[in-house]
Write a structure and sequence with these properties.
Length: 298
């Protein structure tokens, strides 16, 4: 039996911009909502909309079968929960904070010590996109706990269960954010190079983004490489690591000539040189995966 069939109660602890968006989603779905925040005034709009403002963390957690926390970090999570005396057996904690996989696993252990079922999660959208059916929310922890509360979690977006290891959601979150920052920094550096020659950013962006997505970041094309990455096979018939190393060296030298920050392309050129030194010179650029994974030569 799902949680949707047995109850509609949910608690949200932590009412920053994201926590408030989560709470508003539950109100919009006609859930019976309890909220708590260290600054009580942040709950005013939610209370006006029908939420119950708990006076203590203990009251907030015990009013609902499932409590969702959206706090700055795991240290704050522990400080909040440690204010509750006694066990909290029979309830579920869903943490949607941020940190590291080790911190997530430690939080799961601490929750178990309090008698709480536990899921750790990651929100992959900004606050305005909460409630959209296609907005991805990542979760990790026991499958049965996820299944029991799937309906509640689906109120927020598209819930994806990654596995029983509590650290997986945080790991995926940091991996995906790392990809985002690397991609965005690549565009920003490229725009700076173009601007150094007097090219307006909008003019460069139109050309660059029109070329980049189909030619470089085509999801289908990258997905085709994934089995080779897993197998450690990188045929270099269409381009080799040495060719890419030389291109990265040219980008670095051009950045220096144009007075543009050159540390990012220098880092990438040095990584390509390391890949060549490890024996990947005649393989394609996806062999860089071996450097990042510290697998060396197979």
């Amino acid at each position: 039996m799902t949680d949707q069939q047995t109850h509609t109660d949910v608690t949200v602890i932590g009412l920053g911009p994201m926590g408030s968006a989560l709470a508003q989603a539950f109100l919009a779905a006609d859930r019976t909502l309890t909220v708590w925040n260290r600054t009580p005034g942040r709950a005013d709009d939610l209370v006006a909309g029908g939420a119950h403002r708990a006076g203590t963390v203990a009251e907030a957690v015990t009013r609902s079968p499932v409590t969702i926390t959206c706090l700055n970090d795991y240290t704050t999570l522990h400080q909040v929960l440690d204010s509750v005396d006694g066990p909290l057996r029979g309830r579920t904690l869903v943490n949607l904070g941020s940190g590291t996989p080790a911190e997530a696993r430690a939080a799961a252990d601490r929750a178990a010590g309090r008698g709480l079922d536990h899921l750790d999660g990651a929100i992959m959208v900004p606050p305005p996109l909460v409630r959209h059916p296609e907005s991805v929310f990542l979760y990790s922890g026991p499958q049965d706990v996820f299944d029991r509360h799937r309906a509640t979690l689906a109120t927020l977006g598209d819930p994806r269960h990654l596995g029983a290891d509590p650290g997986l959601a945080v790991l995926f979150n940091t991996a995906l954010l790392g990809m985002m920052y690397a991609t965005l920094n690549g565009f920003l550096h490229a725009a700076a190079l173009a601007r150094s020659a007097g090219v307006p950013v909008p003019e460069f962006a139109e050309l660059a983004l029109g070329w980049f997505m189909p030619a470089v970041l085509d999801p289908a094309g990258i997905a085709e490489q994934a089995p080779d990455m897993e197998a450690g096979t990188y045929p270099g018939d269409l381009g080799t690591m040495r060719m890419n190393r030389d291109a990265l060296e040219h980008i670095t030298r051009t950045s220096v000539e144009q007075g543009v920050h050159s540390e990012l392309p220098r880092l990438m050129a040095d990584l390509a040189e390391r890949a060549v030194a490890q024996g990947h010179g005649d393989e394609n650029y996806f062999a860089m995966f071996e450097v990042f994974a510290n697998r060396g030569r197979r």
